[in-house]
Amino acid sequence: MTLTPHQRTVLNYIGEFQVKRGYSPSLADLALAFGVRSKNAIAKVVNALVREKQIEKDPKGRIKIIEAPTVVEQQPMVLPLFGPIAAGFATAAEEQAEELVNLESFLVKDRANTFLLRVKGNSMEPSLYEGDIVIVERKKEPRVSNIVVGILDGEFTLKRLKRDKGKYYLQAENPDYPDLYAMDELKIGGVVRGVMRKY
What dotted CATH number matches 1-68? Predict the structure, then answer.
């Protein structure tokens, strides 16, 4: 099926007309809408749409109501959770799932205030590696030792929030990087709630 741009425009107009008014446009309606003097010209487009099985006509030659496409509601991704599994010595495997986990609600608590960031560099190794995607919640109250999006004197960085003698600073996980203190101002742009990593 290949429609010309004009045919596609007419088809879209027919659908919109039916939704707004509850009935189909006549050839005169279409001719008026597209500034065409001859109804024969618009009839050719309508007949082409019939041939392409985009629309149908009733016995009197009127355009039938176009059925709206069925909208398939996207289902949340729910996966079975097995376990626990030992990270040390091997244990007998659990064959029965403990529960079903909705990944979206598990990873995202406040969708409107959550965004993703891709990690660059190695300052947060071994907690975070370059290429990891972190889930950041904008309005969560930051606590000491949280990994945060810090805004240090106007520059963004991903570090762990620390406090010493009442003064907040940012600390890397990698000991090769120094602690970061604000010369002027330290703001928190969000708190890391999780991490996604592919192997």
Answer: 1.10.10.10
Stated pTM of the model: 0.58
How many CB atoms sit inside 10 A of residue 181's CB?
13
Helices (H), 22-145: 27-33, 39-51, 103-107
Q: How far is CA 10 from CA 36, 51, 70, in A?
A: 12, 14, 21
Q: Which of 20, 64, 145, 159 is catalytic?
A: 159
DSSP three-state, residue 15:
helix
159 is catalytic: yes
**Mean pLDDT of successive 10-residue segments in the chain (199 residues)?**
80 87 88 82 90 88 73 65 68 64 84 88 95 91 95 92 94 96 92 92
pLDDT of residue 92: 58
- Matching CATH number, 108-196, of 2.10.109.10, 3.90.1150.10, 3.30.70.20, 3.30.420.40: 2.10.109.10
pLDDT digits (tens, 9 = 90+) for 147-182: 999 999 889 999 999 999 989 999 999 999 999 999
Residue written as token pair 């071994």: 126
Catalytic residue among 26, 123, 165, 167: 123
Name the residue ranges covered by the structural domains of the chain.
1-68, 108-196
Q: Is 123 a catalytic residue?
A: yes
Q: Residue with structure tokens 């602690």? A: 179
